[in-house]
Amino acid sequence: MKKEQRTRDVPDALGAADTGGLPYEQSTLDAARSLARVAALVAAVLGAAGLAGWISGIDVLRRAPGGGSTMVANTAGGLLALGVSLFLLARARITPWVNTAARAAAALAALIGGLTVVEYTTGLALGIDELLFRDDTARVPLEMPGRMAPNTAAALLIGGVAALCASVPRLPAWGSQIPGLAVLALGMLRLYGFAYAVPELERFGAYRGMALYTGLALVLLGIAAFLARPDRGPAGLLMNAGTTGALGRRLFGTVLVVPPLLGWLVLAGDDAGLFGPRLGTALLVCGHVVVFTIIIFATLGVGRRIEVAHARAEWQVRQNELVQAFMDHTPAVVFIKDLDGRFLAVNTTFEKSLGLPREEVLGRRDRDVMPPDLARRARTADDALLAQGQPVQREERLPLPGGPRDVLTSLFPLFTASGSPYAICGVVTDVTEQVAAQRELRRANQRFLALLESAPDAMLITDGSGTVVMANAQVRRLFGRAPESLVGTPVIDLVPEPRRRRHSALLRAYFRQTGTKPVVLDQGLYGLHGNGDEFPAEVSVSSLQTEEATLVFLSVRDITGRRQAEAERAERYEVHRRIAYTLQHSLMGEPPRLPGLPSAHRYLASIRDPGVGGDWFDIIPLGRNRTGLFIGDVMGRGLEAAAVMGQMRAASHALARTDIPPGRLMAGLDAFVGDLADQLVTCAYVVVDQDSHEVTLCSAGHLPVIALPPDGPARRLRAPVGVPLGVNDSRWDAVPFRQTSLPLPPGSTLALYTDGLVERPGSDIEEQIDTLARSLEVALSGRPTDRESLDQAAEWLVKTLIPDTAAHDDDVTLLLVGLPGTDGAHPRA
Fold first, then answer.
1. Which fold has domain 585-818?
2. Is 725 within 8 Å of 667 (Cβ atoms)?
3. Which listed residue, of 420, 553, 667, 701, carries a Cα 20 to 30 Å from 361's Cα?
4. What percent of the chain shows pLDDT beyond 70?
5. What pLDDT does 245 receive?
6. CA distance between the termini of the chain
7. 396: CB partners within 8 A, 6+ apart
C-alpha cells in the first residue's frame, strides 16, 4: 500500500488508544467536524442575537414567540463565548494562537456560569447579573433581575469545562464529549418541555426558566462539543468507517428521533381525545418495542454476516499473517521468490531498501524491480543455489538505490513435500556498520599510535598492576631509556629509590577511588633519569576500563624550570609584601597611649592586596579631658586606597586638632574628598568628654559604634547616619552631617570597626553586628577594661567573627577604647 493509503486506513496512535484501533473515512471525519463548526456557529449567532436584542431593545431577539422566558444578557454572552470557542476547536488543524483564543472564550463562559451557580448555592449577589444591562423582565418574586436560570448556569459551566478539556490534546476525548452530552441533555429538556407543553422542564421551582433560544443553543453546543474531536473517544466509536460505526450512527439517530416522535404522537392523540393517558402510555411502550425490535434484528443480521465472513477468512490468512509478521519484524531483508525469480513475499525492510511499496514488487521478477547490475547478480546467485541444492552464505558489497552497502547474504531453497524445490528464500543482513566499525577501529589504532608519539610529554601506559605496556619516544629524552626497554617493567622503577614508597601509595590511592577521574599531581613527585639524576615532575593520571583489563595513562613532564620560576616569584612576592606592610603602617601610624584611656586595636589586610588597604583609625587628644576617636574606610583596594587613606588620616587629624564640632569636621572632610576623583569614604568621629561622661558622635555612612556599659548589655549608639564622604555634589544642596551627644556611664567600653569585620557573603550584616556586640560582652565580662584585657578581647573578637583570617578578602580594622570610671579606675562588673 502507498503511504497515503496507509495514513487513511490506520489511525494515529492517540486515536487508536481511544477507539480500539478502528479505521476512519476522512470524509466522515470532515463531515463531523463541519457539523460541529456549523452547530457552534449557529449557537454563537443565537448568543449574539440575544446581545443585540438587549442593545437595541428588540424583544423578539431575546424571547422566542410563545417561548416563555427571556434570554438574559449574561446567558447571551456565555453562549457567544462558548460557541466561538467550540467553533475554533472543531478545526482539523489548530494553531497555538487559535487554541489560546479558544481557551480564553471557554474560560469566560465557564466563569459566567460558575459565578451564577455560586450565587444560587450561597444566596449571595455577586453583582454580575445586571453588569451589562438593567433587567425588567422578571416575572415571579424569586426571579433575580438579570440572573440566568440555574439549569442554564450549570450548562454554561459544564460546556466551558468541556471546551477547555477539548483544547488540551493530551486529555482523553471523553473529558470533553461526556460533558458535551450533558449540555445537549439540558438543552433537549427545554425543547421537550416546549414541544410537549410541560413547563416543569423549563424552570426549577419559582426560579427563572430557560429561554427557548437558550435551549436550542445548548443543543447545538452539546453537538459541537461531542463532535469537536470526532476521531477519538465515544465520538470515535460513532465516526469510524467500520460496521460498528455505521450501526452506532443508525442507533444513535433512532434514539434521538423515534422516542420524541412517539411521545409527541401519544400526547397529540391524548389532547385530541382519541384515547386516555393509560392507553397512550401502552401505545408509547408498544411503539418503542416494535421499533427497537426491528433495529435489533437488523443489527443481528449484519453482525451474523460479519461473523461468518470473519471466521471463513481468519483461518485462511492466519498462516500468512504469522509468516509475514515474522518477516516484517526481522531487521534483515527477507524475500521469497519462485524458481523464475518472481517475488512471492517481501518484508518491510525490503521495501525500505529498494524504495518501492510492496504491491509494486509482488509478482514481478528481479529485473523489473532492481537495478540491472543488482538484478544480474541476484539471478546468478539463484542459479548457483539451485545447481548446488544447498544453502549458501557470502559477504558482499551491493549497489543499492540508497548507496552501496556491505551485506551478509544467506540463500536457501524451500522444498515441497516430495522434496523438489519450489521457491528460494533469502535473508540479507546489512553489516555496513560492522564493517565500517572494523575499518574505523584499525584507523583509530593508527591515530592513537600517532597521537601517542606526537605528545610533547613522556607517555606511559600501564596495566592495573603498574607494569608498563606501552611508551612513546619522549621517555628517551626525559628518562634516558629506550621505550621498548620499559615494556614489561614496573613503572615505579622510574622513581628515585627513596621516594618509591610514597609514589606507590599515591597510585594505589587513585585506584581505590570509585569512578576514577583524571587527576594532575605536581607536589612532591620526582622522576629518575638514566644517569641517576632526579628531577621534579608533574604527572597526569587517567584510567580506561576495557573488556580485558584496566589501563592507566601516565603523562610525565619535567617541571624543574617551573619550580625555579615559582621560587623566584615567591621571593619577589615576599619582598613586595614587606614593602607594602611597611608603607601601610607608616601611613596609618601608631595611635598615642593616653593616660586613663586604655585602647587596643587590630588591623588585617585583604588577601587580594596583602598589607595595604583603605581602612584607618586614630586617637586624637583634644585637651580638657576630651579625646577624639576616628575610624574610616576608603572604598576600593590596594595602593590607591592606601594612598587616599593616608591623605584622609592626615586631614582628619589636622581638623580634629582644631577642636571643631564633629558635624563641621565631617563637612570639611566631605569637601576634601570631593576634590579627589571618584572617591567614596565612610567614617565615624566620636568625641569623648571624660568629665561629663558624654560622647558626641557624627557618622558619614559608617557602621554604628557599639558601647558596652559596665553593668549592662552591649548596645549600638543611636545616632543619625549621613551620606558617605564624596557623595555631595557642589552643583546641588549638600546633605548636612548631623552630630548627636549621648551620655555614657563611666567605665564603658567603645568598639569602632569597619565593614570587613562583620560583612559576609550570604549573611545579614545586622545579625553580624549583633554577634559582635554579644561577643564583646562575653569577652569583657568580669574583667577590668585595662590595656591587656582590651588587647585580649580584640584578638578574641577577630577570631570569633573571622574564623579563617588567611582566606579573608577584605580589610578589617577594630578599635576598642575603655573609658575610666568615676574614680579613674576601669572596673567591669
1. Phosphatase 2c; domain 1 (3.60.40)
2. no
3. 420
4. 83
5. 63
6. 102
7. 406, 407, 409
- Provide the residue ranges of all domains of the chain, joining segments of one domain with +: 24-240, 242-326, 330-436, 455-558, 585-818
- B/e letters for 643-661, b = 16+ CB within 10 Å, e = fewer, are bbbbebbebbbebbeeeee
pLDDT in tens, 597-653: 899 998 887 766 555 678 889 999 998 889 999 999 988 777 778 788 888 888 888
Which amino acid, 67? G
Per the structure block, which three cell numbers stand in for 801? 567573627
Q: Is 180 exposed, middle or buried, given 0-12, 13-18 or 19+ CB atoms closer than 10 A? A: buried
**pLDDT reported for residue 174:** 85
- Which cell numbers hold the place of 538? 608533574
Kindly give, in sequence order, each residue whose CB lies less than 8 Å from that of residue 31, ignoring residues fewer than 6 positions away.
none
Of 1.10.630.10, 3.50.50.60, 3.40.50.1980, 3.30.450.20, which CATH number belongs to 330-436?
A: 3.30.450.20
Full-model pTM: 0.39
Q: Is the dihedral of CA 232, 233, 239, 245 positive or negative?
A: positive
Burial of 588 (0-12, 13-18, 19+ CB in 10 A): buried
Q: Which residues of 706-742 are buried (b: 16+ CB within 10 A; e: fewer)?
A: bbbbbeeebebbebebbbbbbbbeeeeeeeebebeee
Cell of 514: 570509585
User: 455-558 and 585-818 share one CATH topology?
Assistant: no
**In 3D, which of 638, 671, 655 has the Cα closest to residue 810?**
638
Alpha helices in 389-530 (DSSP H): 432-454, 474-479, 483-486, 500-512
User: 455-558 architecture in CATH?
Assistant: 2-Layer Sandwich (3.30)
Residue 236 CA, distance from chain mean position:
36
Q: Which residues contact 108 (CB under 8 A, 6 or more apart)?
A: 77, 78, 81, 160
Q: By C-alpha distance, which of 413, 407, 444, 439 is closest to 426?
A: 413
Total residues belonging to the chain: 829
Burial of 664 (0-12, 13-18, 19+ CB in 10 A): middle
Q: Distance between CA 594 and CA 596 in Å, rounded?
A: 6
Residues in CB range of 350: below 8 A, 6 or more apart: 333, 334, 335, 361
Q: How many Cβ atoms are within 10 Å of 454's Cβ, its own excluded?
A: 11
Distances (CA, A) of 110 to 99, 114, 117, 154: 16, 6, 10, 9
Integer-rounded Cα radius of gyration of the chain: 49
